[in-house]
Model the fold of this input.
Amino acid sequence: MRALALVCTLSPSPSPSSSELLAGQVLAELEKLEVSVESVRVADHDVKSGISTDLGDGDAWPALREKVLAADILLLATPIWLGHPSSICQRVMERLNAESETDDQGRPLIHGKVAAVAVVGNEDGAHKVSADVFQGLNDIGFSLAPGAVTYWVGEAQQGTDYQDLDKTPDAVADTTRALAANTVHLARLLSGAPYPPPAS
Done:
């Protein structure tokens, strides 16, 4: 099993990122379940806007797309901005929406993959953000396990970030572990028993 985290913070490296921190905690739980993991901060790459697998002229998405296609599990980690996923998360969703490649039985390649979401923010809205991202991922063809989101939101109108906490709250740690276990379980099931090909 292979997992890829696309971290959709607006800040390029080496700026600290709460989204990257929570994504790393999810990946650590996946590693305990014998999944090989990789994390990419999307802001470090020139991903063009549009709905295509390759927009040419230095577009970084084709290389990231190859990583998505090679993974069994995709984790999207995003902050909440103005009550929505980050603009980078939306851009990733738009680029994923271009997927049309199929296997030798006509099944879209994405249909065998499982997705999960990690959300951080200093305002309410984690459920709304995960609902938006869930719907997009499902429309694209990813499967979602029960409890496919982990999140942390701070008190409204305060300045504490997830990365500023002295320790991970128990509720977040428990949710992260459940996300990892359920996601890996579903990915392994789909690996052994893929969805049926489309009716001819």
Summary: The chain has five helices and six strands. The two ends are 31 Å apart (CA to CA).
